[in-house]
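Contributing: when you submit paired examples, paste them exactly as shown. First protein:
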Amino acid sequence: AAIAFSMMLWINFVLSRVVFGTRAGARVLLGALLGIVGILVLFAPQIETVSFSDSVFFGSMLALLGALMASCGNMVSQGAQQRALPVMQANAWGMLYGAILTAIIAFLQGHPFTFDATFTYIASLGYLAVFGSVVAFGAYLTLLGRIGAHRAGYATVMFPVVALILSILFEGLALSAAIVLGTALVLTGNLLVLRER
């Protein structure tokens, strides 16, 4: 899933070129390539054991479709910011539309609406709503408006690196040569992408 979603970076390149005429520079392309290679190195042990059964293939295609949809959302956000629409209000409306659509789909599929009134559930829901949605998307979409979707999309390559670092710190994941090399490649790619003028 991490590899499939990191492809959003390349989808952003293509859509930015088609929609806005943005041409990614050589540094950005090289940085993106290093980032993807770094992700492949990080997940090499898991990749070797993957069997492309029907379910794995279907899941991979869904992950790629999710990356495509997220990239389309990046283009919409970049276009909205070029028209001087405020990030937080546009984000709030987008989340409202998404919540309504999700509720309609859940209703049509017969899923019950439930709420667990425990502290753990409410605290995790609050964290996801405030920090995982409002703050995170607000920061990312602001970055997208400032440097463009073709460069801001590199954040998707950084997600697995941050997850691995947290796993090393809190879950006892053993540090390996693949983790060090993959992280170094991703960070080098990040520097190249962000230093592009």
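Second protein:
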Amino acid sequence: ASSLWSITFGLACCAFEVLAAGASRFDIDRFGAGVFRAGPRQCDVMIVAGTICVKMNDCIKRLYAQMPEPKYVIAMGNCAISGGIFYYDTYSVTKGTDALGISVDVYIPGCPPKPEAMIAGVVKLINKIRGKK
């Protein structure tokens, strides 16, 4: 809970907000969550940020399966939560991370959510891991 390493699966504009949360102005590293890894084998948390297209479904499932236990998922942005504005007009957009069969631990709504919301979501996940309400 005190050093979450995340694999950032940035698919659209929400990924820029994840990067901003890691920069010096917001400094998510003070919560122990500033280490972003490129590979799933070293990660505790998957941050799904952005629109999930149908072609990315297998990739997300594969990366999630490769993460060691215990593993957690943060769905960041309306597109990662429910498909967002693109779901109703496009045949190639998945209706959120839950539709892939991946259980989400923390939802961060917004289009795109601000870095402060990202930090609040990470703190919520830390409290969940520690067993606090």
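If you have annotations for the second protein, write them as plain sentences, like these:
The chain has a mean pLDDT of 87.
Residues 115-130 form the longest helix (16 residues).
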